[in-house]
Amino acid sequence: MNAETASIIVARPPRLPQVSRATFVSAATASIRWGDLLGPPVLSRADCEALDELARQRSVAAGQPVFLHGEPSRTLVALLAGDVAMGLATAGGPMRTERLVHGPAWLDASSAWLDRPYVLDAVALTPAQVADLPRAPLQALLDQRPLLAQRLLVSMAGEVRRLTVHAHELMHKDAPARLATWLCERCQPGNGAPNHAIVRLAERKSDIASQLGMTPETMSRLMRTLSDQRVIEVEGYTVQVLDLQALRRLGGA
Amino acid sequence: MNAETASIIVARPPRLPQVSRATFVSAATASIRWGDLLGPPVLSRADCEALDELARQRSVAAGQPVFLHGEPSRTLVALLAGDVAMGLATAGGPMRTERLVHGPAWLDASSAWLDRPYVLDAVALTPAQVADLPRAPLQALLDQRPLLAQRLLVSMAGEVRRLTVHAHELMHKDAPARLATWLCERCQPGNGAPNHAIVRLAERKSDIASQLGMTPETMSRLMRTLSDQRVIEVEGYTVQVLDLQALRRLGGA
DNA sequence: CGACGAGTTGAATGACGTCAAACACAGTGG
DNA sequence: CCACTGTGTTTGACGTCATTCAACTCGTCG
Predict the structure, then answer these.
(1) Bridge partners, residue B188, by sequence
(2) Which of A13, A123, A187, B233 could be disulfide-bonded to B240 (CB atoms 3.0-4.6 Å)?
(3) How far is CA A252 from CA A179, A181, A245, A248, B140, in A?
(4) Who contacts B145 (Cβ-Cβ below 8 Å, separation ≥6)?
């Protein structure tokens, strides 16, 4: 998984994950990996081809919007490759990232069904390859291919679950707990010790903070407190989790 | 709509909407109003009957759980009639209501698709009539009736949108703004004046506060501040909005 | 009448955001 | 090689908003 990631996002220098600028996405329409969007049980060749025919691909340069809040939504939007930040642009200032999407994944599979405008802005952080699926023909396709409809349903169910948990945590967990659970979720097995793990930060810390609903300053302070408590050890964009158990405890508020 | 509501929830006394206890739900399986669950364009008679055949109805007494977090989810759960609070029970204490669902509406149409346990607890506030749709046969049904799949997809899309907005507001709006937008959303045309409206509170104030992610105390204080500013006027469970424009401004933080 | 639950109000604490300064580091141009 | 700049992070001081704890009111019910 990490190897694949590296092929899409340019390897970030050990310290300083500012917007990566290299990242070559083959300019021509690449073949779309629908399986990554619609879940594990592999899709039939025919299903994929039908979707391919519907999808309109476009490239978005780094820094450019994929869509903006308020725009009417007529298509489902999938991110094939690249990174896109979703949030709401503040007057004048930069965008407050509420979520960072890493292709391949859905950017917005719901607004189009409701004939309502987008709720959030989406801007590309890296050059991005995007596929638009117009609603009407997709609907016709789903009528013929029930398996596709199932898959889409399951994808949306996952989104509902993710958002439910997220809203719950924002309501009832304080900042330390949110950070702790976030770290736990990204733990990768460390040096073999059962209570040890590693987290590599692939985004700017301020973006992570923004997604966790706190300011960069608070996040920095929380990291320091955790370090002082010998629960983690931070060096640049690598976090060594020294006491995974304690970290989980902190997250379970 | 209000007349209908009154027929389902017992008319709450003007002051004190504690858990209503009367509410007669016909004990036998009532005919299900699928249109209310799956959106406006009316369903065909055949579709409805097919769903009726699948659905397993059950009654839940007030105070009893409809489902609990952690339980494996094998069915989609719809609330046909009654009120159900969703949230997470705290150790010992009562439940922190994160959302109050008023039938007919979906309680959980997503967990079953993912074969994962429920995320939240759901307990009936009034006697409730619930329908369970087992996943496997429903899936088979959707394969035969694409229209139903579409409708379900649209319902879930609405849920995604609702949750997205909710998460956004929790992150970036402070308590006064959240209360203001909540009030705006429930405004009913008042005495004709363009800047005037009425909001009738159908739940305990502490439940409303809980759904807005604040404590009852803060909510009470915020209501008082708004009254002092002559933006609203509170009398028991009836809120007169005196300056709708100002209220909207307060909500748009 | 007394008990209870819901709501209100006040005072005190604390968590988190804001503002500002210092720091670290990469890239740039001399 | 070295200043110089720009961006991102860290740290400190400070203010504010929201929670907590507690007392008190009001209406209902036994």
Answers:
(1) B198
(2) B233
(3) 11, 8, 11, 6, 39
(4) B46, B47, B50
Taking contacts as CB-CB distances below 8 angstroms, the residues of chain B near A144 are: 146
CA distance A150 to chain B (A): 7
Give the residue-averaged pLDDT of B228-242: 95
Report pLDDT for A96: 87
Nucleic strand D within 7 A of Cβ A2: no
Q: Which of B148, B151, B152, B156 to mutate to test the interface with A (most CBs of A within 10 A)?
A: B156
In whole angstroms, what is the distance from residue B70 CA to residue B215 CA?
26
pLDDT (tens digit, 9 = 90+) per residue, B162-219? 999 999 999 999 999 999 999 999 998 877 788 999 999 999 999 999 999 999 999 9
At residue A212, does pLDDT exceed 60?
Answer: yes
A59-117 pLDDT tens trace: 999 889 999 999 999 999 999 999 999 999 877 667 889 999 997 999 999 999 999 99
Interface mutation target, options A118, A145, A160, A219, chain B, most CBs of B under 10 Å: A160
Higher pLDDT, B161 or B11: B161
Chain B interface, Cβ < 8 Å to A: 88, 96, 98, 109-114, 116, 119-120, 139, 142-144, 146-147, 149-150, 152-154, 156-161, 163-168, 170-172, 213
- A170 vs B165: CB contact, 8 Å cut-off? no
Which of 2.60.120.10, 3.30.40.10, 3.40.50.300, 3.40.50.10800 is the CATH number of B3-171?
A: 2.60.120.10
Tokens representing B92 are 């010992």
- Rg of chain B over Cα atoms, rounded to whole angstroms, equals 19
Fold observed for domain A174-250 = Arc Repressor Mutant, subunit A (1.10.10)
The CATH 2.60.120.10 domain(s) of chain A lie at 3-171
Cα(A37)–Cα(A114) distance, integer angstroms: 20
Question: Which residues of chain B are within 8 Å of residue A114 when distances are taken between CB atoms?
Answer: 154, 157-158, 161
User: What residues of chain B lie within 8 A of the CB of A88, using their CB?
Assistant: 168, 172
Whether the Cβ atoms of residue B205 and residue B219 lie closer than 8 Å to each other: yes
State residue B29's pLDDT score.
Answer: 60
Residue type, position B96, single letter = R
